Amino acid sequence: MNGGNPPGQILKQIRLALCRAFPNKPKLAMMLRDQFNINLEDIALGDNLNEIVDKVVQDFKIRNRLGNLLDGALNENPGNSELKKLYSQEFKIPPSLLTILFPLPNNIIEPIQQAYKACCPNHFDDWEYEPLESLAKILENLHEIAQGTDN
Question: Are residues 64 and 133 in the same domain?
């Protein structure tokens, strides 16, 4: 997702979308626990939701996992139009297709990895030991691979 250093405007959009999708601390904590097995208190403490969400976004940014954060948020709240719009803008996927893609069952990533390996065996080794665990990472890698019609 925008390499390792996304612009501040995208971080702000992510923060606002998360605050609206998970309007209180318990809902945000539930999403992090259900989607990532992460305890919110391990990342951020406090009562101000905006500050808490900012710390969560920064934590995922530092670990270069903002795409995963959007994946998890959409899996948890697939009807949220702001998250869909943000994801759609970032990955150039029409919102109607996102409705089909999300929520993805957790066990679908392995078949996607197998298809990716069959389709792009020369590039699979790049992430063979760090499996792509989110649709965002798969889309980023597929986007970077030269297509058959490229010169």
Answer: no
User: What's the CA gap between 60 and 82, in Å, rounded?
Assistant: 19
Cα–Cα separations (whole angstroms), residue 108 to 50, 133, 135 = 32, 10, 10
User: What is the tally of helices (H) and strands (E) in the chain?
Assistant: 10, 0
In eight-state DSSP terms, residue 108 is G
Q: What is the pLDDT of residues 41-57, one digit of tens each?
A: 999 998 899 999 999 99
Rounded Cα–Cα distance for residues 68 and 87 (Å): 11
pTM: 0.64
Same domain membership, residue 112 and residue 89? no
One domain, residues 52 and 95? yes
Residue 1 lies in a domain: no
Domain hosting 83: range is: 8-101
